[in-house]
Amino acid sequence: MKAAFLIASAVATLFAGAAALAASQEPIQPIAPAKVRNPAMVELGKKLFFEPRLSRSGFISCNSCHNLSMGGSDNLKTSIGHNWQKGPINSPTVLNATLNIAQFWDGRAKDLKEQAGGPIANPGEMAFTHELAVDVLKSIPQYTSEFRQVFPNGKVDMANITQAIAAFEETLVTPNARFDKWLKGDRKALTAQEVRGYQTFKNAGCVACHNGPAVGGNSFQKFGIVEAYKTASTAQGRMAVTGKDADRFNFKVPTLRNVELTYPYFHDGEAATLHQAVDTMARLQLGRTFSDGELNDVVAFLKTLTGEQPNFKLPILPPSSDSTPRPHPFND
């Protein structure tokens, strides 16, 4: 009995090792669950992520454009900002954003902390100022108490505000997708069609840009290599950051994790469906025209990249005090 158990254990270990080796040789790797190092900071950041009083209107929060009930995006071509302004670009998902090489389509923010401060002061987004945002939080006793508990210096300032939001966003990873289970050795996790789709995805060359745990997000690439992409959008990609004409139309490669949830696609949101997005990318980036069968297979594979969505208790935001600056939703 003992010998049989030892043999079974050895065989299981051997198979697990073989599966791990096979996964390590794939261009895509499983996503690891988030490691929460400072729960109090994450909890504060969660409140601030949902806090509409960081906007001039008192209506728009980070979650407005990065809705955690909708794949961390807003499913609009371009987001709606203060006074119903039309945003200039499609809102990227915040899910797995900690794996990105940089933040925003043009990579102008080096990390999540730097990104978090941008929309607050952008007149087309939250339309506030950093000074007013700080004043609002300072006027709310529960917030000042939490900042003292979380940060050694106890300050309510933009450095600590953005650090807390970033700490929360770092937890928004989506592990245990069916494709991850397949990578780890569960060959029943995918259907035959989904496996075919992955093979087509690899063989066609999609993995040259869409690789790593996030299946993208780790490089900047020119949109429209084989064929120019035609769009009404004025976004110039990396050129807006570097000033170099060579960087015109170079955008951060988007993650394909949870891609079935983050429609519409591309920086201008012009691809309404995954089929449309895959067809366009194959033609413009690879010079390939997929058959209907290949398109269906690749789309089926992409849907296996949907992982476990963030699951947490909705934060209850502290009430304003008598001295809290009041919102101005209508430019009054």
From TrEMBL:
Signal peptide feature range: 1-18
Alphabetical keyword list: Electron transport, Heme, Iron, Metal-binding, Oxidoreductase, Periplasm, Peroxidase, Signal, Transport
List of residues binding heme c 1: 62, 65-66, 82
GO cellular component: periplasmic space
Post-translational modification: Binds 2 heme groups per subunit.
A Pfam family hit: Cytochrom_C
Region annotation Disordered: where it falls in the sequence: 312-332
Keyword Cell wall biogenesis/degradation: no
Localization, UniProt: Periplasm
Protein name per Swiss-Prot or TrEMBL: Cytochrome c peroxidase
Species per Swiss-Prot/TrEMBL record: Gulbenkiania indica
